[in-house]
Amino acid sequence: MKIKQKLKKELSQYSGLKNVVLFSSCRNALYILLKSFELKSTDEVIIQSFICDSLPNAIRLAGGKPVSVDVDSRTLNLNADSVKNKITPQTKAVIFVHTYGNPSGIKEIAEICKKHNLILIEDIAHALGAKCDGRLAGTFGDYAVYSFTKQMINFGGGAILTNHNIDKISLLRDQFRNKGSLLVYIKRLFASLYETRAFFISKILIDIARKKSNLKQTNDLDKHFHCTSIEAYLAFKQLPNLNDLILKKRKNHQFIQNKVNTQKILADCEASHNYLSFIFNEDVESSVITKTSFLFLPPWSGSNISNRIIFMPNNLRFSLRKLKLMVANYHKIYNQTLIINKNGTKQL
Is 345 helix (H, G, I), strand (E, B) or coil? Predict the structure, then answer.
């Protein structure tokens, strides 16, 4: 059996979803999935506001209209009431992003989609192995899209997982036969290392890249759509270790959760804890964050919580000393930052 077939079988067995289509990336997988729905320009797809540009870009490129909804300020996921208020006769689908690997709220969104006959897509790029009420993330909706570079070390790769027919999806993907560029693979590898193992060196290189290039381009679709054999091989080899990695990352989250204000995981949920988040009660000055610690990343813009959160990949190599430093820096930022009060004046 060829390696791609082995990977598809492994993903299917792990998730319990019978059909898998491999892609060059999660965003390309999402784009082809949306294209298969034959969206019109008036067809609406609900997504959360706290997200990278690649998701709304994929919706637009597929012919649809993204409708942004603010997230729950505790879970950082879609809020059920907000979604209800955005549903119109033109709404065709909802994309639920398991932010940082948190499945909190997916049950409620699944119920809403079922009631209104909407397609539910789960973005589990960070959340393979996460659970809600004993069910795996990715199994509540009609389709799940996954990335091989968020929880694994890889050059690229992604997948669609579903119990629905995949013939149309496969045909649409196979229309694209472009080869990937070496530069794209290198960028993905560094991003993957940053999210998994070699955090510090990758962070330095990413910061240099931020100053020298437009990182918005990293949210564009790949010109190639097929997962390579090497990407499939690397994913296949790492998948059996996923649950153990999640348990180790959970320990890091448990260490900080009582020391800082962080993402809430509902009682019936088990997150994959792919990122550590540090949340503030009010807006903070980004300059204070970057001066205090180079470790933290600024969040995606355009959301109700964009100026109140910093985060970083939950790296397995973080020592207890490093975790304590993160907590100390969080409190330093919290105490030192200039906060704009209701009167528009600044105070310490």
Answer: coil
